[in-house]
Amino acid sequence: MKRDNMDYGTLRVATPDGQIREHPVTVPSVVIGRADGNQVVIDHVSVSRRHALLVIESGRITIEDLGSGTGTFVGTQRIPANTPNIVESGQTMKFGEVEARFTSAEAVAPGAVAAIAVDDTDQTIGVSLLSPSQPVAAGSPTTATVNVQNRGNVVDELTIRIVDLPESWVRVSRPTLSLVPGARDEITVVIQPPKDSASAAGEYPFSVAVTSKARGREVRALGKVTILGFEGFRITLEPTRGQRDFVVSATNDGNVAMNLTLSGTDEAREFGYTFGMQQFDLAPGEVKRIPLAVRPTRQNKTGPETYRPFRIEARHTGGHAVAMADGSLILKPPMQPYKWPAIIALFVVLLAAVGLVLYLLSQNDDDEEQPDPEATQTQEEGDATAEPEETPEPGATATPPASLEVGGNGVIVNSAPIPDTSNCLAVRENPGTDGNVEGRLCTGEKVAIEGGPRNADGFKWWEIEAANGLAGWSAEASADGTTPFIVPAP
Predict the structure, then answer these.
(1) Distance (Å) of CA 337 to CA 101, 131, 350
(2) Cα angle: 40, vertex 43, 44; to 5 degrees
(3) Do residues 404 and 486 make contact, with C-beta atoms less than 8 angstroms apart?
(4) pTM of the prediction?
(5) What is the mean pLDDT of residues 48-56?
(6) Which helix (H) or strand (E) covers residue 104, if one does?
């Protein structure tokens, strides 16, 4: 029997940008396509001008691809062209990249979860919920369908809301609607979890709550949506340029837990890498800071200050994803070119001092070999009236202070650069073993005492400044006090 101008149902169409449109089907056969004149017009680039034919006959739904370029799908299967294919109740269809679902006007789709509220006067509200048929990727939209029916005998205004899901994830096509007695309607709910770590992968139960204004009753139907997992992580290096100590920050931007492994590499393979934690787990949204020490396996004793690049990699265990961060290691040989003039000048001064000593010694020898007769006579005459020798005044000879003090000077000891300067005394940014190392001073270098002392981590720390401008805090001696590192200087 022909059913012209009847309500066969609704074709709900969802485009990739998240827009939802409902097309009422009033004839048993409709052509779907992009061109004007089709019974259902879908304006999307992936839809052909005449894409597919939908036929409703004896309660059975068939779809036929009309030779489209992007294909027609039932569920996840692409159907052959020009061949009718049955669409089971609740199955989705796709025309190119556009998803569609047909809902009959005569019955709630099988598989929907229904709830009915009945009061003492037998006035009722019927509610059913059809959850998303497929898991959704974070950042992409999916839809649920709410069917409501006024089974009472008065016009009722209904309010629809989704509970148990974050409000920012959900958009209800019509939050309120008015139904006459016996009427039913369908509301589309768009669910779009954001693509960030807050949308953890897994199943999320939710419910739709429909409230009757006429009866003051609320009816709920249960549903669920499943969010697919995605991976995303990054690392940063602090500082990007340093002498040894760095910090690697790892961030999990995905919605699944990850296990990461850190490694370091440089083109010449001349550095060693020591991580505070080389393999670790990261929960979604978690950030971890891992200490890193980069040291050269060998270092030149002479030459200019140089910057050598290196790279830190974080690899997802069991996967192919890699995150990278680049840095530079500052190499400062102990015998740098700018120090040569001072070294040469010191060598010349030493030679001059040695020459002067030798000259004075030779003069003394000459005086002893040729005594002066007049001096001898004067000495003999003076023996009778010899006066006691004068005691040298205090302070005539410079002596170092007994201990370090602010405003005084010190000299570095027990810090020989063997095999390299990594054995020399560390000068840190702050007093304490966790302070960043600003540089190192080796045995014989003089420093000015600028501040202190401060006790931290079992050491006594002094604020010092070297002749080359290096300034910071250094320990006076070893923790047990048996090995001094800075001693008073004149």
Answers:
(1) 78, 75, 20
(2) 125
(3) yes
(4) 0.44
(5) 95
(6) strand 98-104
